[in-house]
Amino acid sequence: LVPVSESVERARQAGMAAQHVLRLCEDPPPQRREVLNLADVAHAALTARSDWLRRRRIGVRKGFSAALVYADSSLLYQLIDELLLWVGQLGADIAISVESSQSTGRPRLQVISHRAPATAPAAVWRGVRWVLWHQLARALDARSELDLQDQHVRVTIQLPAVTQAQLARSVDESIEPTTV
Length: 180
Description:
Layout: H1 2-26, E1 33-37, H2 38-48, H3 50-55, E2 59-64, E3 68-72, H4 73-90, E4 93-100, E5 107-113, H5 122-126, H6 128-139, E6 143-148, E7 153-158, H7 164-172
Helix pairs in contact: 1-6, 2-4, 4-6
């Protein structure tokens, strides 16, 4: 009975993700952008996914540095969550980090699976989650990079940096950089 219920849950999740992809493509939601700390959003996504990660015996190493972004909080959270779900399909040893790029100054999110890409199931590379996290990155004006090495898969998402005008506007509106 457990395999059947897990299959039903995977099908339900895939259906919901497919609906989300369709919505992003056909009728993008209006965005309410605000100054956010990317590390806080990543931490919130990891916390919310902790039971899912534990049930699948996925170990997560994390390293977060403060990195301010100007983004819609719900889309940013969904992007990180979908990346965790996608990378979680690859293997049981993942790492996630947040920092500002030294060369570009852009906030950067990296998610790594310590699994040889050649051993990953084919469905991982053409599944709905793959499409969904790409659509979410595009909606956030982020740049994504996929690095396939012999023993790991690394996804790097670079988001636009907060401008001085955006930061000043958030201060003028008496809004601290928010967290999720």
